[in-house]
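Table S2 (continued). Query chain:
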Amino acid sequence: MSSEVQGRHRAAVLGSPIAHSLSPVLHRAAYAELGLSGWEYGRHEIDEAALPGFMARLDGSWAGLSLTMPLKRAVIPLLDGISDTAASVEAVNTVVLTEDGRRTGDNTDIPGMLAALRERGADQVERAAILGAGATASSALAALSRICAGEVTAYVRSEARAAEMRGWGERLGVDVRTADWSQAAAAFEAPLVIATTPAGTTDALAAAVPERPGTLFDVLYEPWPTTLATAWGARGGAVVGGLDLLVHQAVLQVEQMTGKSPAPLEAMRAAGEAALAGR
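Corresponding output:
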């Protein structure tokens, strides 16, 4: 039996709801491609109240955790430390358990967004727009802080959300302007649009896609393609989807948890595409 099997070889995704998560598909595909036959990756329905107890029960066989909503902020007090990237948005989606017993948090959503955009040629933009607010929008702002030279306009539904986005902008060093959701079609004038809203929210905006759109990053992966993404692609615009983000952030998680690099991006993407096609 290899030392990998004897030691840390367990990982899982936690959240609520969690049944829909593609993370097990992606991570298991990586393990198979990397020859990590003794590794396992599970899925656990865990809410904020259950998280401390679950964390307390983890033993030396655990290498890492992936976290989704509503745990990305709740986990922080339970860790020994977090990365600067995670601290910048107060959100952890990755926990690595080291051999010395430390539990450290990171955020791979932000570099995952950057990698997904870079793959489609959007590595520098003059300005950008964000549709929606909340946790994913703050990660989008953090990503834009590294590639956007000018203003970011966030289209939101309430003044409370607007104030929150402006606050994140100040914290992240991004020039953020806010506008009411009723003006959301104006977002499409930007060379990069990041849609962070729930399924169906942007459907009504599809008719407003311009003749020559820039790049759309729609963070949803199910259902896919979204109505907006379909209209955008039909106009010849570049489209980055939620699966692109999911795969790129999972690549970084696999590398941190297993210590194996590079993780097999294309094998993970193919596994994710096959799983979605089968749903």
